[in-house]
Amino acid sequence: MSETDQLTADFVRVCALTELPAGEAALAEINGVRVAMVLDDEGVVHAVNDTCSHANVSLSEGEVDGCTIECWLHGSRFDLRTGKPTGPPATVPIAVYPVRVQDGDVFVSVPTS
User: Where is the Rieske domain (predicted)?
Assistant: First the structure.
């Protein structure tokens, strides 16, 4: 099995890196899971569960500031690297998914169960 075959066996191609706007969130659906994709100011791609753990609200509609994303409804912020909330009202972390960039494409691994 080639390196590319191994990469795509566990990871799903989401988009080209050039399709992600820097400093903004984009929505993707991977294995039936809504995922907020963020290309931060340092060129690192992050993938987190799109649903705020405090309220059933799409995080991809919120503001990105550095390595955090804000829920637009109540202002909870989550660290894009760890998924942990950085302040109230959210107290439960969101899922963070592994990301790989290869040959200009973004791949994300999201569990199917």
Answer: 12-108
Q: What is the dihedral of CA 101, 72, 51, 44, to 10 degrees?
A: 10
Neighbouring C-beta atoms of residue 93, cutoff 10 Å: 15
First to last CA, the chain: 25
Closest by Cα among 17, 22, 26 to 48? 26
> In this predicted structure, what is the pLDDT of residue 7?
44
Specify the number of domains making up the chain.
1
Domain that holds residue 49: 3-108
Residues of the chain below pLDDT 70: 1-9, 113
Query: Any residues with CB less than 8 A from the CB of 18 and at least 6 apart, and which?
Result: 104
Distances (CA, A) of 46 to 5, 16, 74, 100: 22, 14, 22, 10
> Would residue 113 count as lying in a domain?
no
